[in-house]
TrEMBL record:
InterPro entries: KR_dom, NAD(P)-bd_dom_sf, Sc_DH/Rdtase_CS, SDR_fam
Protein name in the entry: SDR family NAD(P)-dependent oxidoreductase
Domain Ketoreductase: 4-182
Keyword set includes Ribonucleoprotein: no
A Pfam family assignment: adh_short
PANTHER family in alphabetical order: DEHYDROGENASE/REDUCTASE SDR FAMILY MEMBER 7B, SHORT-CHAIN DEHYDROGENASE-RELATED
UniProt entry keywords in alphabetical sequence: Oxidoreductase
Family label: Belongs to the short-chain dehydrogenases/reductases (SDR) family.
């Protein structure tokens, strides 16, 4: 077994899986988590890399699912936590099922907040640990036709900065990764393949993962992945919210609505 352990949520595909590959390459034992059986397939690709790979299939939208993960970790010290699990939801808010938008909030906000508190308590007691939280540039703008998701990412972006301030005098670092549209299963799962953003060219998940990992290793407060997204993030600070919402509508409004 390696001398260092990384816990990565949402690791079955996309950014989380690519981060798992990086961590394995740098000698971290892994605990990989997702709410689908595909986590086993992802883990199998990392067998033979010289590190131990364990999996947890759990619903991180629930306290019980997060407790499953915590039980798997046990008393082992966690050197890196990547809080990457997230869920999207497209289309107009007034047309969405309550269960669907609640799942987004419970996954992105409630479950992530609960897990972060539990893990940061341990890291603070050890005075050591690195945390990477997957936020989004979506959190910088009102998300017309993706309203709940953007709201959850605004929470995570803000929350990460607050935690970083509270832990600034400890050996624990907090970094927030802010990707733009990325080539993952996200848009299909969010029912957004009938939107401009769902069908446009997107950033490579491996590039986004490397950007986030390197920023975390340096202890950077936040990083926006991709030049185009850096420009969009900068624009969001000077353009009125009403115009930002209209810009987002142009990307996320489904065809025919």
């Amino acid at each position: 077994m390696a001398e260092k352990l990384a816990v990565i949520t949402g690791a079955s595909t996309g950014i989380g899986y690519e981060i798992a590959k990086i961590a394995a390459g740098e000698g971290f034992d892994l605990i990989l988590v997702a709410d689908e059986p595909q986590i086993e397939t992802a883990a199998a690709t990392l067998v033979g890399t010289g590190v131990t790979v364990e999996t947890v299939q759990a619903d991180l939208a629930t306290f019980e699912g997060n407790d499953q993960l915590l039980a798997k970790i046990g008393e082992r010290p966690v050197d890196v936590l990547v809080a990457n699990a997230g869920r999207g939801l497209g289309h107009a808010f007034v047309e969405q099922d309550v269960a669907a938008w609640r799942k987004v909030i419970d996954t992105n906000v409630t479950g992530t907040t609960y897990l972060l508190q539990k893990m940061l308590q341990r890291m603070k007691a050890r005075d050591a640990g690195q945390v990477l939280i997957t936020g989004s540039i979506a959190g910088l703008m009102p998300g017309a036709y993706q309203a709940v998701y953007n709201g959850t990412k605004a929470y995570l972006d803000s929350f990460a900065y607050a935690l970083r301030n509270e832990l600034k005098d400890t050996g624990v670092s907090i970094t927030v990764l802010m990707p733009g549209p990325t080539e993952t299963e996200f848009f299909k799962r969010a029912n957004m393949m009938d939107t401009p953003v769902g069908t446009q060219d997107k950033d490579d998940a491996a590039m986004v993962a490397r950007t986030g990992w390197d920023a975390m290793q340096k202890g950077t407060a936040h990083v926006v992945a991709g030049t185009k997204n850096k420009i969009q993030a900068a624009v969001s600070h000077v353009v009125p919210d009403t115009l930002l919402a209209r810009m987002h509508e142009n990307m996320a409004k489904p065809d025919g609505e």
